[in-house]
Structure formats: C-alpha cells, structure tokens
Write a structure and sequence with these properties.
single chain, 2 domains, Rossmann fold, binds guanosine-5'-triphosphate, elongated, binds magnesium ion
C-alpha cells in the first residue's frame, strides 16, 4: 500500500517537473500532426521540435529516422506520434538505467561525487547516505569540499539527518589529506561506505583536475582499487550545458556514472535522453527535490512517458 502511494507521488513529481518540457513538446507535436500525413516536411519539423526540447541533434535525428521507418507516408495522429516516441525513448534509455552496485567486498566501498558548483553534489550525497543508512549500512561522509566553510556545515546537517558521522577539516585545508584521513577512519570503524564530497570549481579546471587526481592517488595508498565509483552530478535545468560538463569531467577523472538532479523543476528534461544516448554511461539515480527522500533510481519507462505526456 505504502509502495503504491510512494510510486504515485514520485511519478507525479517527475511529471510536474517535466511539465514545462512536456507541454512545449507535446503542444508542438499536436499542432504538427493534426490530420497530417507523415511526409518529409513533417519529419523535419518533428526533428526541430525534439531538438528544441533539449534531446540534442544526434538523438533527435535518430529518433525521427527510426520513427519514419515504420510510418512514412501514412496518416498519423498526434497521440500515435507521442506514444511511438515514448516507446522509442524508453528503449533508448533502457541501457542507461543501471543503479550503482555496491561491492560488499570493499570495506569501505568508496564513492566520490564530482560536478560543477550548485549541481547538487552535497545534497545528493546526503540523500545517498540516508538511503544506505536506512538499509542498515554503516556510512561515513567526508566533506572534501574544503574550499568553503558553508559546504562543510551543509554536509554536517545532512550527516545529522542521515545519522552518519561526517569527517571534516578546516576551510582551506588540503582536500586530499582529508580524504585520506576519512578513508583511514572509515576502515578502522569497519564502515561499509565512504562518500566523499568535492568542490566543483570548473572555472579553475587545472586546479580541480590536480585536486581530483591527488584525492585518487592518496586513497589508493590505502586501497589500490579506490575510489570504487566516481559519479558525476549534473543539474538538468542547465540543459545542453550538461554535455560540456560530461566532456570536461571525463577529461579529469574516470566517470563511472551520472546522477541527474533537479528534474522536479526542469524545463529541460529532454537532456537526459541525449546524455544516455551519447555517453552510454549509467544513470545511477535522479534527483526530484530537495528532501532526503528525493533521490530515485532512474526508471526509463516512467521518464519517457512523463516527458512525452503519455499517461501511465
Ligand atoms: N529542486 C531540487 N533542488 C535540488 C535538487 N538537488 C539539489 N538541489 C538544490 O540545489 C542547490 C545546490 O545543491 P548543492 O547540493 O549545494 O550543490 P553542490 O553541487 O554541492 O554545490 P557546491 O557545493 O556549490 O559545488 C541546493 O539549494 C539544493 O537544495 C533536486 O533534485 N531538486
Ligand atoms: Mg556542495
């Protein structure tokens, strides 16, 4: 019973968040396909609509080409178009929907969260910690964003909410040294997971790259296989910016998966489709709000149907 309520409210929130993307996208499709044959001009317009909805040119072209293969020259209605696209988008997203698998032989399993300022790293880390703590895992947090005192305070609040200890160092300390101590401590405590927050100063790319490389290097002095998951946090409201962030961060660290946040408030929900198609990275979770329960596994069917405004 609870599960049904939970699913419904999450689905509602996702739909609400995507409603700006969805209404522009679906209104345009409705206008285009009111009593119309699927000819080349219609296909070109459909491609433009999908690009405008942030799906990206390559993905839009692929979707339209696949769609045209079956329907070209036939009469189509707008709801057939939406249904068909929702199905295609779901298929395209399916391979990307891979939740993070925690290797329990790692004690602790070390997760590093990276991403630009404001992407939602600290919030996401707090939500992840709460989720794992709820499952009875022993989780330690490390405030690796030593650049701002406020960042440390913010993580402390999340630590309290999740009931997890937070490892901190004074503002301006070396982030790698903190990560090292946190791993030492987590290991000594027999923790299952260590989650490390980082600063997101992409404007100083070399500085950030050096910092991330150093964090990795010192962690590996203790555990040669750490970090076990490096996750890139992306803010969906930034639309196509997400692509340049993926490229920039992949030049700096080996990214194992993506977390897309703020889908509850995004007018740019289509960006997830392009990301999934282009980088083949797992989308391990999505953020749909600011509270502790607002991190969810990525569900391609729900997502595709919410985006295309197709019920259930
Ligand atoms: N609506 C909504 N807001 C979110 C979500 N995730 C994060 N936020 C908000 O986005 C803002 C930035 O989040 P942070 O977690 O501080 O982002 P950060 O990446 O740690 O930022 P820096 O530490 O400055 O690099 C905060 O106000 C969060 O509450 C989400 O899924 N939905
Ligand atoms: Mg932060």
């Amino acid at each position: 019973m609870t599960e049904i309520t939970e699913t419904t409210s999450w689905w509602q929130r996702l739909k609400q968040g995507l409603s700006k993307s969805t209404s522009a996208l679906t209104q345009n499709i409705t206008q285009l396909f009111t009593h119309r044959k699927l000819d080349q001009a219609a296909l070109d317009e459909l491609e433009d609509i999908l690009i405008a909805a942030d799906l990206g040119p390559a993905t839009a072209a692929k979707l339209v080409a696949d769609f045209a293969e079956n329907r070209f020259g036939k009469d189509v209605t707008d709801s057939e178009v939406k249904d068909a696209l929702a199905g295609q988008i779901e298929q395209l997203l399916q391979p990307a929907a891979r939740p993070l698998v925690v290797d329990e032989s790692k004690q602790p399993f070390v997760v590093l969260l990276v991403g630009v300022n404001g992407a939602g790293k600290t919030t996401t880390l707090g939500k992840m910690a709460a989720g794992w703590a709820d499952q009875g895992k022993k989780v330690v947090l490390a405030a690796g964003d030593t650049f701002r005192a406020a960042a440390v305070a913010q993580l402390r609040v999340w630590g309290e909410r999740a009931g997890c200890p937070v490892f901190t160092a004074p503002e301006g300390s070396d982030a790698a040294a903190l990560a090292y101590k946190a791993l030492e401590h987590a290991k000594a405590q027999g923790a299952d997971l260590l989650l490390i927050d980082t600063a997101g100063r992409l404007q100083n790319k070399q500085g950030l790259m050096d910092e991330l490389a150093k964090i990795k290097r010192v962690l590996q002095k203790i555990d040669a296989s750490a970090p076990h998951a490096t996750l890139l946090v992306l803010d969906a409201t930034g639309g196509q910016n997400a692509h340049s962030q993926v490229k920039a961060f992949r030049e700096m660290v080996a990214v194992d998966g993506l977390i897309v946040t703020k889908l509850d408030g995004s007018a740019r929900g289509g960006v997830v489709v392009g990301l999934a198609e282009q980088y083949k990275l797992p989308i391990v979770a999505v953020g749909v709000g600011e509270t502790i329960d607002d991190l969810k596994p990525f569900d391609p069917r729900e997502y595709a149907r919410a985006l295309m405004g197709v019920e259930g």
